Amino acid sequence: MQLLDRTGKAVRATDAGAKYLEYVRRAFREIDAAGRAARDVNDLSSGVLRLGFTPSFSAYLTAPLARRFREKYPRITLELNALSQDEIEADLIDDKLDCALAFYAARASGITSYPLHTERLSLVGRCDHPVMNNKFIDVRCIEKEELILLNNTFVTRQTINSHFDKYGIKPNIVIETSSMTTIIELIKSSSLVTILPDAVAIERQGLLSRKLLPTMQERQVVLLQREGAYRSAAMRAFIGILDPLVQELETFPLS
């Protein structure tokens, strides 16, 4: 069986060779995973957890999750990686991540998903902003407000755009950004408002979230892992921190 094609200027793998390399890479991933499993320390006195997450979670979930985990397991190194959904799935398959927080059940084969909570998009702004005096806000009123939103590369923004299009809303978007930090800082220090998960207001004093009517499409947040991957002691401890935190998010009332 010929694995390499040397007829051209460059040596290339044949179809059979490419298939062989795929199995070799998979074998090396399994060997590496087996090595980590052998080194796993069940008393959590050491270890590493490689977590991926889509950028939207940095606004409300990543920081409290990391803080609680570090407080309880200070000797475990936590690697945080903000990635796109496609990058997350590829890195899970390649064993570059142990697990990841994402919006959807995995689209790629070889990945399992564990449902966490339902994310709701709401209007978020300063407590003293006049529009926040209303418990519920008609989405048509958005046209009167100056908005700062994530740019169109984010799934969150695509969901917002679809909602506006559905109801014929022409929003006054004055700033678009890829930075969650920029959005949070500007709505805290100006009259701008934004649309983000309502949980963003949980840990930020001076901010409120208000439900939009009609409501925007809810999204299922899931924990992704490579199918059949070993769950280390650090991974099991992480899930023990994650579960009660997302339960708090589910019960968080709109202020």
TrEMBL record:
Residues 44-242 form the LysR substrate-binding domain. One of its GO terms (cellular component) is cytosol. Transmembrane segments: none annotated. GO terms for biological process: regulation of DNA-templated transcription. Pfam families: LysR_substrate. Gene3D superfamilies: 3.40.190.290, Winged helix-like DNA-binding domain superfamily/Winged helix DNA-binding domain. This is Transcription regulator LysR family protein. The lineage of its organism: Bacteria, Pseudomonadati, Pseudomonadota, Alphaproteobacteria, Acetobacterales.
